[in-house]
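ok so i was messing around last nite and threw this chain in just to see what happens. nothing serious, just curious
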Amino acid sequence: MLKEIYQILIGFLSILKGLGVTWKNIFRKPVTMEYPLDKPVMTAKHRGLVDLIPDKCIACLQCSKICPTAALVVSGIMNPETKKRAPDKFVYNTELCCFCGLCEEICPTSALFMNKCYEIACYQHADLTPIDLLRSNKYQHLTSPRTRERKK
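result:
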């Protein structure tokens, strides 16, 4: 008999504790966002997809050497006019990338950076591999049609 009364008392206290949490939070501002319409701002430490500023790149190949998964394939040529190296091929394989950020750290000219893109879902596997980072519209296929319509 005492055991049943104890069980009822514990149940009642548990309900009061839950109601206390409810009353504490009932008048707070909601933290839910309407995701497709309102997108969260990524923090400074967020590492998205690898991106490139082609004008800054000197094709030193350090990024491809340090990449632990060989997600970057880079080759460069010497520009006879400016006497500087420039990339002629810069391919990024998102399927292999582990988003470690080592390529960004080692780049001497800060030409490589991890962008804030976090929506990398796509309909076809071929959209993810390989991506030519020398193109200006390299990540166009990863933005949803709804996002493209709103930006216009």
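not much to say yet. The two ends are 72 Å apart (CA to CA).
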